């Protein structure tokens, strides 16, 4: 999970760990690319507006390098052009902030083909 | 106060009517002048004709020894020979001989008769029921055996008036016809003159307000419209920029509001997900409180910024020593310095500015707080207050990692936060925007650049004031030490 807001990232990490996910945390776009290329993840949760490189730029860089890990973009921007940019970059889905934790879990399960529980 | 439009009117119709009326009046005047000219000419010709005729006949009298005859030319060859009569009168005015019975019917123009007897040929117009006659009276030189004293040659004015009536009718007809033609032409001219306005209006209607959208190009090369079109296009550009600015503000504001809301929601949901210890609940509630503070900060900043931009903030200006404000700002930040070394470098002489002490101190606190937030603990922050001949300078500089050169021009834009700023928790990105607006209200400028130690240097330049009261330099009396941090305080402007 790459999220530059410490509080958002902290609470999401805590909630997901309690749901028995293993999580690696990053805080900016370049960190996101380094992590995704160096380790295997089932899913990347990626904030849209990140320092150094934005979420869509990160996804595009990963896809350009053949990295196909599913990406769920978390975005506070919900303008149609932002959503379009999100998906066009290669992201597999998006959630608009603020979202329900249950919706986040549902999206994660959907993208990882993992059934809840 | 603006006057409401009383009634819409058509410029095209107004132009056409005014032009037609002007032309009609001109033509009418011309026709009247022509008519009077023709009338005078005809009368003059008649008079000359009467004069020459009278002289001719007087000369003939000598040749025929007082016997009065009418020459052949007067009878047949002329225009209207029957219209001419000749009468020979004696010294009492009685008719001795005449060529027409009319001469006997008409009354004697005594005054003209007497004048002619005195040797002055006299022309006169006589009127009596149904007739108007123009006559000339000419003295006949005395001759032996002749009683003739005055020769009268007269002519009816009826043919002349008939001709004048015809001329008048022709002129009125011409005026009417030309006026109708003028009205049609004026309508066409006015339509041609107004047509560009319709085309410009039609193009203006298609302007969408999107940045870089359409512009008015119709008739932009016409001298009469180029200035107007230039002004309209420039206004469109300004409106588009303002519109784009507002769109961006709303988009960025949405982002800045949603981020703390997401943190609060995630915290509360995670807290409710399962049983927690009291300490954990406390941590989550504290975090939610921080989120509420952040949202409050944003709304306060927005209100202040909106009021600044709307010109609703009234400054409480007074001559103040900038050193005193800097001291107070440093004192306000001391409690939250996180190991930063804040140094105040003062000019030995008073640094006078004409300022709203409370708002200016808030600006300095904001700059110091930014330097504290965006540099690692233990960094050095300097605030120096300098007096130049005409300007007072307040410089806030840190020795942090600074900002990229491409970031600096955007630093005072609303919601702008560099990556460095984004990487750490900061304000809503409105502080520097409000800072620039407040300093601009004071007639000053604020600029950001890379400092001598590689960090960020922000320089405020204000007009210098040389006379400052003692109170203005006394930190205990002027201003309000310990005022709440920027945007948390209600702004009573």
Q: Can you walk through the features of this model?
A:
- The complex is a heterodimer of chains A (117) and B (493).
- Chain A is mainly alpha-helical.
- Chain A is 46% helix and 11% strand.
- Chain A contains five helices and three strands.
- In chain A, α3 links the parallel β1 (44-47) and β2 (71-75).
- In chain A, α2 (29-38) runs parallel beside α3.
- The longest helix of chain A has 13 residues, at 6-18.
- The radius of gyration of chain A is 13 Å and the shape is globular.
- The mean pLDDT of chain A is 90.
- Chain B is of the alpha+beta class and 493 residues long.
- Chain B is 51% helix and 17% strand.
- Chain B contains twelve helices and twelve strands.
- In chain B, the strands form three sheets. Chain B has a five-stranded antiparallel β-sheet. In chain B, strands 7-9-10-12-11 form a five-stranded mixed β-sheet.
- In chain B, β9 (380-387) and β10 form a beta hairpin.
- Classes of the chains: A mainly alpha (117), B alpha+beta (493).
- The interface between A and B is medium-sized, with 27 and 26 residues.
Keywords:
heterodimer; A: 117 residues; mainly alpha; 3-stranded parallel sheet; 3 strands; globular; B: 493 residues; alpha+beta; 5-stranded antiparallel sheet; 5-stranded mixed sheet; 12 strands; 51% helix; disordered C terminus
């Amino acid at each position: 999970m790459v999220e530059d807001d410490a509080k958002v990232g902290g609470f999401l990490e805590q909630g997901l760990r309690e749901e028995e996910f293993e999580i690696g945390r990053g805080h900016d776009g370049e960190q996101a690319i380094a992590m995704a290329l160096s380790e295997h993840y089932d899913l990347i949760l990626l904030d849209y507006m990140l320092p150094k490189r934005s979420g869509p730029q990160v996804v595009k860089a990963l896809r350009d390098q053949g990295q196909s890990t599913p990406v769920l973009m978390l975005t506070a921007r919900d303008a149609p052009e932002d959503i379009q940019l999100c998906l066009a970059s290669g992201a597999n889905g998006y959630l608009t902030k603020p979202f329900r934790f249950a919706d986040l879990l549902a999206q994660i399960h959907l993208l990882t083909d993992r059934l809840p529980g | 106060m603006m006057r409401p439009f009383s009634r819409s009117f058509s410029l095209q119709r107004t132009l056409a009517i005014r032009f037609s009326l002007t032309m009609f009046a001109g033509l009418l005047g011309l026709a009247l002048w022509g008519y009077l000219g023709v009338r005078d000419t005809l009368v003059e010709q008649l008079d000359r004709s009467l004069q020459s005729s009278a002289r001719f006949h007087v000369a003939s009298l000598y040749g025929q020894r007082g016997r009065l005859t009418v020459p052949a030319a007067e009878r047949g060859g002329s225009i209207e020979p029957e219209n001419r009569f000749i009468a020979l009168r004696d010294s009492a005015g009685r008719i001795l001989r005449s060529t027409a019975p009319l001469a006997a019917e008409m009354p004697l123009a005594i005054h003209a008769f007497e004048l002619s007897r005195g040797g002055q040929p006299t022309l006169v117009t006589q009127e009596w029921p149904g007739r108007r006659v123009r006559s000339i009276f000419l003295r006949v030189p005395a001759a032996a055996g002749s009683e003739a004293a005055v020769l009268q040659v007269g002519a009816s004015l009826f043919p002349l008036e008939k001709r004048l009536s015809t001329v008048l009718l022709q002129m009125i007809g011409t005026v009417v016809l030309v006026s109708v033609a003028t009205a049609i032409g004026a309508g066409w001219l006015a339509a041609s003159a107004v047509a560009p306005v319709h085309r410009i209006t039609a193009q203006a209607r298609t302007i969408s307000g999107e940045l870089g959208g359409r512009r008015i190009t119709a008739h932009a090369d016409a001298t009469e419209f180029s200035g107007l079109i230039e002004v309209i296009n420039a206004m469109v550009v300004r409106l588009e920029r303002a519109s784009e600015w507002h769109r961006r503000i709303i988009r960025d504001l949405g982002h800045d509001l949603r981020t703390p809301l997401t943190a609060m929601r995630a915290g509360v949901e995670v807290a409710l997900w399962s049983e927690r210890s009291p300490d954990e609940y406390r941590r989550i509630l504290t975090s939610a409180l921080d989120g509420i503070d952040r949202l409050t900060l944003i709304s306060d900043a927005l209100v202040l910024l909106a009021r600044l931009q709307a010109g609703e903030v009234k400054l409480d200006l007074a001559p103040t020593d900038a050193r005193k404000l800097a001291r107070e700002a440093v004192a306000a930040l001391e409690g939250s310095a996180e190991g930063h070394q804040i140094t105040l470098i003062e000019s030995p002489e008073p640094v006078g500015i004409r300022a709203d002490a409370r708002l200016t101190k808030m600006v300095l606190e904001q700059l110091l707080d930014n330097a504290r937030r965006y540099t690692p603990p233990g960094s050095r922050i300097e605030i120096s207050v300098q007096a130049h001949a005409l300007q007072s300078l307040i410089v806030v500089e840190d020795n942090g990692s600074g900002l990229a050169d491409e970031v600096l021009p955007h630093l005072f834009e609303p919601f702008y936060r560099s990556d460095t700023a984004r990487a750490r928790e900061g304000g809503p990105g409105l502080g520097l925007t409000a800072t620039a607006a407040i300093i601009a209200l004071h007639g000053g400028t604020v600029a950001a650049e890379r400092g001598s130690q590689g960090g960020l240097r922000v320089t405020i330049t204000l007009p210098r004031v040389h006379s400052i009261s003692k109170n203005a330099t006394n930190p205990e009396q002027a201003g309000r030490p310990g005022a709440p941090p920027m945007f948390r305080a209600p702004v009573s402007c």
